[in-house]
Amino acid sequence: MTKPSPQPSPPSRIRIGSAPDSWGVWFPDDPRQVPWQRFLDEVSGAGYTWIELGPYGYLPTDPAVLMEETARRGLRVSAGTVFTGLHHGPDVWDRTWAHVAENAALAQAVGAGHLVVIPSFWRDDRTGEVLEEPVLTAGQWQDLTRLTERLGREVRERYGLRIVVHPHADTHIDGEESVARFLDATDPDAVALCLDTGHYAYAGGDSVKLIETYGERIGYLHLKQVDPEVLAGVAAEGVPFGPAVARGVMCEPPSGVPALEPVLAAASALGVDLFAIVEQDMYPCEPDVPYPIALRTRSFLRSCGV
User: Fold this and answer.
1) Least packed by Cβ within 10 Å: which of 6, 50, 86, 106?
2) Keywords of this protein's UniProt record, alphabetized (predicted)?
3) Distance between CA atoms of 265 and 135, rounded to whole angstroms?
4) Which domains does the chain have, with CATH numbers?
């Protein structure tokens, strides 16, 4: 009796990309950052086909120019990124929308389907100056959730993009408690989550558990790892996020946490199309550092089946 032939595994529905962040880019213009042309050349050379826009103004903001520059390198855009402070209430809506609209318009024009929304920092990410209380009041939570829902609906209606909210170190949405509270209080039809594995681990969260618990809310992934030894020192000293990155708190996979293989397996088990964008925070870094890391990281992710 012959044994049935093993069935081939279905192709992965996870689309891998990278971002300017993995090249040390945090600002539209900074002499310590690589020129945008070099970023595009190297991200393509490392084997990626998807990118994010990064800070608005780093890549060309003329859609025709950007489409030409990405297409000739075999690249496509998955998302734009915005920072918001919607917990401050309706008074900040008009200013927020102006910022969101220019980013969303560019993302739409170059074929992206998502807009990554990052809450504003409660302390300055360079100096550590405390800008506001690290814990929101009940009223601020209500403003945050209601206005984020409004943002999600208006971005979808006007630009056809899905917003994905990104928990981030030194913001009011970071670890398990605040992420669960945010998801439980928002409409799944309006708001999805961008799970950044590094930032979630930075705040003590378990990415696999989050995917298994809130799988239907996961709309996007950022792949990142934390060096646990550096993180322990950062936490003990109360170091803000920017200086923590300069210390190397975000590290090259697979040397940190969380392990990405089980995260990718849990995400694949959802059975949906997902972008998984590599983001290794490295600002500032020497210009020759990112490309070899990008090559190794892409090779590692292929070994994970994506």
Assistant:
1) 6
2) Lyase
3) 33
4) 17-303 (3.20.20.150)
